[in-house]
Amino acid sequence: MNPSSKTCDKRSKAAEYKLQRILNKIETLKISDSYLSQIKFPGKEKRSSKKITNYVKVYSGICVVLVGVTVKWFYDDITSKSCLVEVPSSSKSLFRPPEDCSMCIGVDDVVRLANISAEEFEQHYAYSATPVIVTDATQEWKAIKEFDFNFFADFYRNVKMGTQTNDCFFFAYKSGLHSLQEVFDMDEARANLSGAPWYVGWSTCYSEESRQLRAFYRRPYFLPRTAESDTLDWLFMGGPGQGAHMHVDSVRHKSWQAQVRGRKQWQLAPPPECLYACERIQFTVEPGEILVVDTNRWYHKTNVLPGDLSITIGAEYD
Ligand SMILES: O=C(O)CCC(=O)C(=O)O
């Protein structure tokens, strides 16, 4: 037997002795069983109610902390977003207000323009829904000579991007590529358009990225002088037979899109409520041309035509 079981044995003997003395006392006092069962033991009662009070205090404390943490999380969440519930961009078109079909009635082709003043452009085209191609606006751009796959691969591998200025978007389309890093890590054959076809789009989102890329192109000369350009530019790049599926955008403003390289066919479709009043139109944007189209109103689809890699750069303006 070990020492602790010895101590235990002594204690139980003592308890047995005390109990026997109590039973003897009960016997001599002739106390009935029913009286005994009604006796309350104040010490015990006090302890258990004290215990309950402590539990209540602890649980209330935990609840207060949990409620506080939840409120703080909820507050941080809603103040960091512009919307309480983010609607996936693919379903935003379901909730757009119906269009007034005068936007597309009589539009049966894109309008091609050159040498147009900012005033005239503002008066007739800048804020109308008529799609326009300006053919002479990229003559001075370094981008026309320098933008190719290797330019962007070097740029995105080596340029320090600075601070983030807005959201960053990446559209994989059917490429199976999930990020710019994956795009510029693709093997040489695929990058040279002799492997699996690909087409991707992305937005700039860092201060240095935008500043350094904008050194290769200019704000188009025909934009209204008071028009502000967004801080974010859009780029689309990929090979023949690829492009964007038919969709309508939900961006803030109308945009210009410069076809820096390659040839791209565009199909524009009126919004569904105007299908009987308006026509679908199709046209090709040639290298060096700038398309101005309201992609929030016209459904659109693109397809890169056989030949070179297509690179488009664009931006929204207000
Ligand atoms: O240039 C493209 O291929 C797609 C452009 C587009 O879908 C857009 O600007 O919304």
From TrEMBL:
InterPro entries recorded for this chain?
A: Cupin_8, JMJD6_ArgDemeth/LysHydrox
Report the residue ranges that make up the Cupin-like domain in this protein.
Answer: 119-273
Q: Which domain of life is it from?
A: Eukaryota
Name under which the protein is recorded: Cupin-like domain-containing protein
